[in-house]
Protein: D-alanyl-D-alanine dipeptidase
Amino acid sequence: MQITKGLPLEEIQKVKIVENGEPLVEIRETERISLLKEHRYLDARLRKSAQELLYAVADNLPPGYKLLIVTAYRPIWMQKELYARRQKQLARKHFFLMIFQYPKWRRLVNRYTSPPGGSSHQYGGAVDVTVLDERGNRLDMGTALTDFGVKVHTENNLITDEQRRNRKVLYDAMTKAGFANYPLEWWHYSYGDRMWAAYSGKEECFYGPVVHI
Structure:
């Protein structure tokens, strides 16, 4: 993995959507895929092709390891709640930036949580995931999935060698199956949407916001 800067939102929005109308389908638990069922923001659905790719991801993991799905599709109400939470979090963390340089603060918020209507989770092709070891423990990735800042970037100089290797286990399994990583969040992967297309060098994608289908 290489240190990769996130693309500007404007670049991602240039991707043309050619919607293919695939339905949302349930992610099924298997011996190698678990769902974080107690998570308030887990709607365990993805577009059909993205859902099918998860089973290839699980097969790409080392023996005994499991994929843990933390979040997948998000309806608009869910994204609104998550966006409001991120705004409050960054208002506390960067109060003076919010007061005196509001546009810069707003861009910071949008870097780590997309505004409602703009999240790839609403396209039905994105998942937030991590990996469980043979004992059912999460691999040490260096941060929680609710954190923000440089340390959550997929590749950075603030994590240990072990944490970097663990992230690579996830990265290799996901990208080999066809997902693309959002480089500012080690846990976020997508398929078929604008973010996937932008980071894969494609001009078109085939998933748009589910609410438009």
User: Anything to note?
Assistant: The radius of gyration is 17 Å. The chain has two domains: 9-74+119-212, 80-113. The CA atoms of residues 181 and 206 lie 17 Å apart.
